[in-house]
Amino acid sequence: xxxxxxxPPDLILQExxxxxxxxxxxxxVNNLQWFHQNPWxxxxxxxxxxxxxxxxxRLSATTVATERYSLLYISSSQTTDSGVYFCAAFSGSARQxxxxxxxxxxxxx
Amino acid sequence: DAMVIQNPRYQVTQFGKPVTLSxxxxxxxxxxxxxxxxxxxxxxxxxxxYDKDFNNEADTPDNFQSRRxxxxxxxxxxxxxxxxxxxxxxxxxxxxxxxxFGQGTRLTxx
Lengths: 109, 110
Known about the structure:
The complex is a heterodimer of chains A (about 110) and B (about 110).
Chain A: E1 4-7, E2 10-14, E3 19-25, E4 33-37, E5 43-48, E6 52-56, E7 59-64, E8 69-74, E9 83-90, E10 97-99, E11 103-108
Parallel strand pairs in A: 2-11
Antiparallel strand pairs in A: 1-3, 3-8, 4-5, 4-9, 6-7, 7-8, 9-10, 9-11
Chain B: E1 4-7, E2 10-13, E3 19-25, E4 31-37, E5 44-50, E6 53-56, E7 64-67, E8 73-78, E9 87-95, E10 98-101, E11 105-109
Parallel strand pairs in B: 2-11
Antiparallel strand pairs in B: 1-3, 3-8, 4-5, 4-9, 5-6, 7-8, 9-10, 9-11
């Protein structure tokens, strides 16, 4: 199966700052998702982004499938952005979703 | 509207006492998954169904079983919970190559 790596593992920001989270994957995938896990444990879909760029409010994501990476941008961060951000992908014919190890984001007031 | 619903949100069970977690979906998706997540770790796949085709991950403990009586419902049974089974349990469905998760059930074993 594919390997998915995320960086940085931890990130602490002051409210209002911008940040970029990175996801590298070991093999070509035709799908990639970003999730935010809130303090209550729920995994919330942020983006389904196999390629290209998408934006949703203060968040945007870019996937360059040929170079096997994806980026999640958070602008003007808020304390409610705190939590763990995961990227994940299904590989080839595999039916399971492979997760990265996550980025723990803490936004300080 | 919630599309993947897990009940209960929080479950406390006694050591060794069987417990069942439930998941339902309104999406009519063929594929359903159960994941286990321990703190500070990525979710770990326990089982998945493609329609009625059941797939058990090689390292899923024998203590864990699953049932899918119909497309909408899926259950996770833990026959004899140990302290090490305390975790968040996440149910998910899949549409094409996109996964959708429920709110999770946080299991505590006392």
